[in-house]
Amino acid sequence: MRERALPWSAIGAALAALLAVGVVVVVVLGGSPRAPDRPVPVVWNRESCAHCRMAIGDPSYAAQLVTTDGAVANFDDVGCLLRYLDEHHPRVHRLWFHHPSADRWLGADEVGFAQGAMTPMGWGLTAAERRPGLLDLAGARAVVATRDGGPAQPGAMP
After folding, report:
1. Contact present, 113 and 127 (Cβ < 8 Å)
2. Cα–Cα nearest to 100, from 73, 70, 126, 134
3. Angle at 54 between CA 48 and CA 80, to 5 degrees
4. What separation in angstroms does the CA of 113 have from each of 98, 117, 139, 147, 155?
5. 90 contacts 105 by C-beta, under 8 angstroms
6. Contact of 67 with 89, CB cutoff 8 Å
7. What mean pLDDT comes out for the span 97-111?
8. Whole-angstrom Cα distance, residue 98 to residue 107?
9. Sheet of 63-67, strand order
10. Of 13, 93, 96, 97, which one has the fewest beta carbons inside 10 Å?
11. Residue 91 confidence (pLDDT)
12. What integer pLDDT is reported at residue 139 of this predicted model?
């Protein structure tokens, strides 16, 4: 009895076609989690700051980081977020800062920072709508780096 040879070229072509279809499905259906483009709700007094681990109780000073892979980190103080950026160098998708007196968030492109407030961790920065006389994000980061005894790390800014 004669053995039949397997049609390897046909099997290879079929596997390549299946792989191509799989790639298309992953791309079309979004195979990886999509990073949120809006602030993720914080459960006040139940979630901990990603930097100092204190409970996030006062929305007036809260901040939020969303990374490019969709991870969300919450902070009880603007300064905690800025230190976290320098220490961990996350790939930033969005930064959000809670308005000090309204129930809404400000994006990094619209925020300014006032100095001198009594904030939860004593960093003294309060987010507000950007306007003349307020620090921009780089200026606020420099204040935190100077106070903490070291320069801000290059490349960590979003």
Report:
1. yes
2. 126
3. 90
4. 11, 10, 9, 16, 21
5. no
6. no
7. 96
8. 9
9. 72-75, 63-67, 92-98, 105-107
10. 13
11. 97
12. 96
Residue 13 tokens read as: 């072509």
Residue of 139, 134, 131 whose CA lies nearest to 157: 139
Confidence of residue 26 (pLDDT cuts 50, 70, 90): very low
Question: How far from 126 is each of 10, 108, 137, CA to CA, in Å?
Answer: 65, 13, 11
Q: Where are the alpha helices (DSSP H) in the chain?
A: 8-29, 78-88, 137-147
CB neighbour list of residue 31: distance below 8 Å, 6 or more residues apart:
25
End-to-end alpha-carbon separation of the chain, Å? 70
State the residue for tokens 């006062």.
58
Average pLDDT over the chain reads: 84
